[in-house]
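JOB MANIFEST
job_type = single_chain_structure
chain_count = 1
residues = 232
[input]
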Amino acid sequence: MPDIQQLYQLQQIDSNIHTARKFLRKISVGLVESESLISARTAFQEAEKVYKHAKTLMTQLDLEVKSLRQKIERSEKRLYGGKLPPKEAVSVQQKIDSSKRWLDKREDDLLEAMIAVEESEAEYQTCQETLTKIDAGWQTEQADLLREQDEHNQKIDVFRDDRESLELFIAEDELVVYEKLRSKKGGTAIAVVENGLCLACGVMLPNRLVQLALNDDSFHFCESCGRIIHIL
């Protein structure tokens, strides 16, 4: 004779396993980098790229300006040394004038580059702080999710042990019927009946069926949803 109560307990265990697995699937979705973290990292990387480029350009311009000043200084020493022929002195003066014009241009470029470095550094630091803050929050969330994941995995292990123990007391043919119904009926093979009402489908059962289920230990099925009825 089938023990409906044992099958109902088995269904409750299976329901608990199903619920725990749903939580695990939800947790697995959260165990990836968030959109805000990805966005913050992308912004930081772009800001870092701009900042480094600005620093490189400023360094190059600074070296060029220093080199031009040294070049002009050497040329002026030659010019004012009084040893150059007039024609060559004119040529040197022209080169000095040209170098000074170019120096003025590069000094302006250097000033702009210094401003760009200052602005890009501020943006870089802001993005870095934002990324650090978001990453810290994400790391905390990940730790919580991993802890929950471990807890639910442990619960599933306990439920599986309980299920295996309970299966030892249930006939194999009864398990086959239960598993087939559970597969067809969305995980609910056993329908609880209270005051003649099938709680699985909401239909009132005929009194004769309820009485038969109360007095007979064999399987009886809801005439509406087809599940095994369990009278409480």
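[summary]
The first helix runs from residue 4 to 30.
The radius of gyration is 41 Å.
exit_status = 0
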